[in-house]
Request: fold
Amino acid sequence: MTTTRKLQNSDFAQVFADIATLLKARGDSVFKTRAYSRAADAIGNLQFDLAEVDEAKLRSIPGFGDAIVSKVQELAETGSLNYFDKLKAEMPSGILEITQVPGIGPKTAMNAAVQLGIDSREALEASIESGEFESLPRISKKVAQNILRHLKSRISQGDRIPIGDVLPEAERVMQALQEAVPEIRNLTYAGSLRRHRETIGDVDMLCSADDPEAMMEAFTSLPAVRDVMSKGQTKSMVVMDSGLQFDLRVVADDAFAATLLYFTGSKEHGIRLRDRANKRGLSLNEYGAKSIETDEIEEFSSEEAIYQRLDLPYIPPEIREDSGEIYAAEHDELPQLITVEDVRGDLHSHTDWTDGRFPMEEMVEAAKEAGFEYLAITDHSKSAVVASGLSVERLVEHNETVRALDKEVKGIHLLTGSEMDILTDGSMDYPDDALDELDVVLGSIHSSMDQDRKTMTARIITAMENENLDIVAHLTTRLIGKRAPVDLDFDAICRAAVDTGTLLEINASTHRLDLKDTHIRRAIDLGVLFSIGTDSHRIHQFADVHYGVGMARRGWCTSGRVVNTLPYTAFIKFISTPKADRYAFIENYDHKP
Reply:
């Protein structure tokens, strides 16, 4: 049977992860299980479309042997996998669903299904509440109740939360802890949050304190804590009112750097570092580095010192994903990643002229307070009816208002602009003579998102060929966890961006983060230049620029590839340059990509 939808990398990864789970539940060899688990992890880090590569490319992926390659090919061609279907048919139903619950491993899920007939979360909850679940091996009343609390809190291994929801809460928790225990030291978050992944499973936090038990008491007693999952002398786990799980560890000052490195991850990056340490006669763990020969422990004052001990430069957390960073570090090829401080202007913002929530004057003042040197005010074009898009006549009035305000406000430069709809055939939503009057033109897809790949790709490239289109905003149109990206040929669009002198936006909105990290890295390989835009509709959203920068850093992006790191005068020269020559302008500028 031919699939009606091209599989995404996430689809392939999920199939292999599920196979690993089922094999472990069945008791297959650990080597076989790990092969599928590693394949799933490898797929998650790819920067190319797995469904569209040839066999040679598949075999170049680490860990992809004959069995994995043939299964990827079968999935790509048919949309299903006979091996996986047979494996599911042989196993009790509900195994995969149950293993998504924290505390339920594959073997426990298998026992629950075989012995108690549990095949869903609802059945699991009923079994725990009746006490029946405690009849299973290694399931005490305490363990059962912890699992039940996870169920009640709607927390599961498969439920990940957008970073824009997690980071503010993590900062609130850290502030509360600092107020509760003023003598706390080194308080920070680790894990996927520190690596700035777009979604987070739970929050790992670390600190040092003279009285660890008092620290645990303060942590588990925070007003926002809904449930205490575990409480120890140096480690506790809680669930907040939001349903988000927080783990806090108290570590000694002299072990803090090693612990931070260990718990920041990723797991695969840590494995690479430990292998490297072993070759140097060291055993690297969360406490430091132990000499394999003498058992003497080396302690480190910083992560930088640990990398230096392993003959590597410091590797920023955002790129610790085992995606080539070790090789790059070995060969002095790590990029100097962009920082928030590098960003001079914001090229995407909205006011109450369309769907923004604040008057233009207030948005400008907020951008100034956020530290921006310049701001493009890019309210929506006329086809964006739900956003109260501006008619051509209103656009003229909008331009006049922006220019008048630019003369009044000190400390920030204002640019006229529009977030203009790219129509279904790739044409512009405003006539060229109207676009000629704008400083910055963003083009976005807001309609007909179900177009097929060929049509969508042609639509965007046609828009790029217009001399007035400066930036394609939030290219894939995704809304994290709510709306899938449009289907397009990303490489073709990147090549067209370079050919036409068009920028691709890294949208910092916490609902979008579009482009995502893997897109950014691939686009860099193809020579693309970017802008980072906050897409602010409210005054507080200018601060969200750091989410866009975080995504750019994960994509190995330097400041030289982002045009709004230019000082205002240089940016005006750039945007005034004929579009076809703009990439050359950046190439010849002082901070080269």
Q: What stands out?
A: The mean pLDDT is 91. The two ends are 47 Å apart (CA to CA). The longest strand covers residues 413-421.
